[in-house]
Amino acid sequence: MNTLTIRDLRARPVTAPLVRPLRTASGSIEVSPLILLDVLTEEGITGQSYLFGYTPLTLKPLMSLIEQLRPELLGKAVVPVERMRQMEQRFRLLGLQGLLGMLVSTLDMAYWDALGKSANMPVVQLLGGEAKPVPAYDSYGMVDPAKDAKALEKSLAQGFRAIKIKLGDSVQRDLQMVSEVRSIIGPDIALMVDYNQSLTPDEAIRRIRTIEKYDIHWVEEPVLAEDLQGHAKVRQAVNARLQTGENWWFPRDAEQALSAGACDMMMPDLMKIGGITGWMSVAGMASAASMPVSSHIFIEASSHVLPVTPTCHWLEFMDFGANILAEPYAVVDGKVTPKGPGLGINWNEDAVTRYAMK
Predict the structure, then answer these.
(1) Which of 72, 105, 141, 205 has the fewest CB atoms within 10 Å, i.e. the most exposed one?
(2) Cβ neighbours of residue 253 under 8 Å, at least 6 residues apart?
(3) Is 231 designated active site?
(4) 2 pLDDT band (50/70/90 cuts)?
């Protein structure tokens, strides 16, 4: 495999419709605000990845940041570990988090995509694994069991063996939602719940105890993500297992959470943990701690890193990129299989034009 050299960066902001709008305790997501990132190389290979901005308000600042970062990368080799070291050294005083951290992580995914395309193989193979199916769970927002029963039944018909719902409304509403969803999906399907950081530790303990009888597979981010002591307090006081990690910035945050005893399981976000390079570092920590690892969004790249994660658990199926991809990833018998070459990402150019940010 020949060394690739960065010739240019191309970024395009889009606001694409969601397959299923998402309502959480921390606000609703009605559209998918994305930056489509291309790393163009002198050798004619283009690495591709996308950044999820959470709100359209981030897209213009991100575009500006990419323009400022471009001169730092032109002419450099597509070597993900070295490029990560370059960014760590360049921004030592500022730190890698926030919009900058999201961009650095997304660039890393694009580098790996380019390397996979250059070698004509999926990234999972570059990482020493094989393209095998990964069990996925269907990820919902806050649901209305009466209105969403058919959607939940469709998920089961697709082969999903796990469902996640958002909580964080009133105690009574949460309890009703869990009870009715459990009734719809039956006793053999894993049921996860996510509070999206909406509770205090004491309130989290109270609420989790009311729903534990419904066999909760995990409780996700009941308190503020950065409140590691709060997570540890909740974890010690309830029987349900705690899941966190989607808001960790790079491997150091993962190590701090593990040291604090903040969770029973982890779910790093590829866009915040340092892309594929950062993920692989955290996968080693998780393996040493015998801690199950699941993914947070980014179906495409997650399907490549989970098969080489020793404690692989679940892939989250929440599809923010489907409407701008030429060939969106699909669920088959409740599982997602990595595609190649690279990450199996190619843009649907008609959709990119249609959803371009005005």
Answers:
(1) 72
(2) none
(3) no
(4) confident
